[in-house]
Amino acid sequence: MTTVKLTMAQALVRALAAQSTEIGGERQPLVAGMFAIFGHGNVAGLGEALHGARGQLPTFRAHNEQAMAHAAIAFAKASRRRRMLACTTSIGPGATNMVTAAAVAHVNRLPVLLLPGDVYASRRPDPVLQQVESFGDGTVSANDCFRPVSRYFDRIARPEQIIPALNRALQVLTDPAECGPVTLALCQDTQAEAFDYPVSFFEERLWLPRRPEPDRHEFRTVLGLLAAAKKPLIIAGGGVLYSEAEQRLVAFCETHRVPCAETQAGKSSLPWDHPLNLGAIGVTGTAAANAMAREADLVLAIGTRLQDFITGSWTLFQNPAMRIVGLNIAAFDAGKHRAQPLVCDARIGLEQLSAALGGWRASPGWAGKASERKGKWLADSAAATAPTVSDLPGDAAVIGVVQRQAMPDDVIVCAAGGLPGELHKLWQAGAPGGYHMEYGYSCMGYEIAGGLGVKMADPGRHVTVMLGDGSYLMMNSEIATSIMLGMKLTIVVLDNRGYGCINRLQVATGGAPFNNLLRNTAHLELPAIDFAAHAASLGAIATKVSGLDRLEAALKKARKAKRTSVIVIDTDPLAATEAGGHWWDVAVPEVSERAGVRKARKAYEAARKTQRLGD
Fold this sequence. Notes:
Layout: E1 3-7, H1 8-17, E2 19-23, E3 26-29, E4 31-36, H2 46-52, E5 59-61, H3 65-78, E6 84-89, H4 93-96, H5 99-108, E7 112-118, E8 152-156, H6 162-174, E9 181-187, H7 188-192, E10 194-198, E11 205-207, H8 216-228, E12 232-236, H9 238-242, H10 246-256, E13 260-262, E14 277-280, H11 287-295, E15 298-302, H12 308-311, E16 323-328, H13 331-334, E17 340-343, H14 346-357, H15 366-384, H16 395-405, E18 411-414, H17 419-426, E19 435-437, H18 446-457, E20 463-468, H19 469-474, H20 478-485, E21 490-495, H21 500-508, H22 531-537, E22 541-545, H23 548-560, E23 565-570, H24 595-608
Parallel strand pairs: 2-11, 4-5, 4-6, 6-7, 7-9, 8-9, 12-13, 12-15, 13-14, 15-16, 16-17, 18-19, 18-20, 20-21, 21-23, 22-23
Antiparallel strand pairs: 1-10, 2-3
């Protein structure tokens, strides 16, 4: 056996650089590069290895560990899980800063390789700087925090362990069912230790997407359910896009006259103006999609885990005969809520179902009802996004301006607060992948870093990030990274001076406005934050605008700019689109001295009676 002597870190980097995939007939690196913030736990070992391989595996310098992992996650999502990035940090705070991002990737089933440094395997200098010691378990380090939010976790304490560990890591990262974050904790002394590695470890390996076909028994059962359905409804989740099944979805809807609604992750699966695309569904859904869902006798849920925002906390589906078919690559998700599972690739499943159904169609008039309801919704949506003359426009009016300036191939990026609900209902996505929302974990601070990752994945598309002042304050450092990497973004900051979305929820559940908007806090002095000046200090072209007409002009200027632009506009924290939407189960206190809370509790108890218990 031919071997080569390398440190563990050198072997890891060389092996990562040898992994490839094929997209559109072209070979591309599977791991497009590595974000790195160096510290004593990785600079000497992995840092030296990355420097030596910088021509094969690019290293990107970031400003915040959580943010760089968010960017890597967004890169993977925008790449439809076909490519990914790795992230390395030191031990201690550098490592634990990535735990939140790992949870984002885990919830959203997205691949990212996390490589935090770890304590000394030899334990000679224990406790080393930043080491978290467990009083009762000497094998525990801070990196054990990653275990519940990793699809695979391993600690590399000997140099030869990287061989099976990396193989397992790559299997998880590229598996459509297991896909999610992988954490390889790299003991810092082990990174520098040498081993005679077999040359075969560094041979190029091609990873192509696995497309499992459905089980015959499950397929026959699902076929029977579909054939008997009179009022079927498709819910398109992120799995449609990850499977590159959007054209098959369009063909299925048109052939069988089945209307379709979209989750946050699945939005842009169908052209927004397709007559059978009802738009968003659930708590943040359109009136058209939710009305059809209430009547549906069969729901074909494709590539979605049917979380509570999609199902209206299981109050949305009111037809007592309604059945769910879970067409999903992951059995864990396919069988949720007593659904009839169809475990397979989305594209393969749609192709085979359509062929077997032949000329079957939904009941006459069902598709027509969908188109009629959609037409009314489009009128309501246009009214919600129309320009206003208010000094403080609502989110919907700002969205309207951004929408009218957007091109069909643009990408809109968002994550948390009130904007995801408004965007889910109101945004008209152009090309597939043009709507990028992190709403599985709804992580504040994802937005700007996510926009960077999207731009890195597809530099030819114009990327617009929309976020509130709260999210901006939580994480904005990757504005500077976007300047450094030449990855131009347009960032629109809607400043409502606090957490407007949660303030509205607080009031809606009977609570008093408290500790969400800055004006409702107990602080003696409220900050007058100049977001434009702050963004400019990070290198962006920045401006604050007053009025929607000036926002429009600023967006046109930003599109022509050569680097990242930040546009700030003051908005109304109380305004929200009343059209569309659905009830969401947010528990209201059963006992309270406040009359408003008691009233909200009665309404809550009434709404809960419509939940489908046991489903």
